[in-house]
Amino acid sequence: MSHHHHHHVDSxxxxxxxxxxxxxxxxxxxxxxxxLTNSMAILSDALHDLGDSxxxxxxxxxxxxxxxxxxESFSFGYRRFSxxxxxxxxxxxxxxxxxxxxxxxxxxxDPPEPHAGGMLAVAILGIVINGAAVFRLRGGDSMNQKVLTxxxxxxxxxxxxxxxxxxxxxxxxxxxxxxVASIGITLFILYxxxxxxxxxxxxxxxxxxxxxxxxxxxEKINDLPGVLSSHHTHLWxxxxxxxxxxxxxxxxxxxxxxxxxxxxEGVKNTLESIQLEHVTIEVEYxxxxxxxxx
Length: 294
Hints:
The protein is mainly α. It has helices spanning 2-37, 40-65, 81-109, 116-137, 143-171, 177-204, 214-222, 257-270; strands at 227-237, 243-251, 276-285. Helix 2 packs antiparallel against helix 5 (143-171).
């Protein structure tokens, strides 16, 4: 079992590593291509790919880093570092998007002529390379891998937009399509970045994960046989995928060891649908008041 898990982690790390090198190499190519073809749409997609390269690079690093386990300084381990990576990535993309807007908006009023043939060539390359990265990451079990796959699929859609714009400009003199495509891609990037940034900040502030109904969990715990009440129930996330849970349950003063073990098992069964990294269940007798109560 241990060998299988190690193999799975190494396989995931290898897939992310390959996707990172594909994406980063192409980001350099498209920045050069965007400058040579005078295309803001390509530079906008280059920004998106730079963000993806950062995401992939940090995911690759953290995938290896997370295997370190716990330490004296980080008793929960290093999973939470991925939130820091997400925050850095979001800031880079927001700053880059502002730069693209500053460059693209004036071009709406006086659009320069981009090299449509060059745009077409880079767009085809973009679809192929991003498609290869998606193919490499497909079928991943981890949430990290699935999120990265969807992120790269968004890139493919961006390059399809550039492809369509370049084909139209090869036959019609409409250079304004380039800044329009650039602004459209940048708005799409910003929408997703802000959405992810809000989620990241909620995790930093230890909000209850959005896909979990804590009120319903508390009701289920209180309905368990032998549980008189519960309090100090907390659920927070370490990295958006793995969560931690703690609660105090109150039992009758004459509850025996077997009954308490059954209650604990019942609480754990209530939580089985949640990906929990850490669970703390403190049992209190009704005639022994909680020291944390005020």
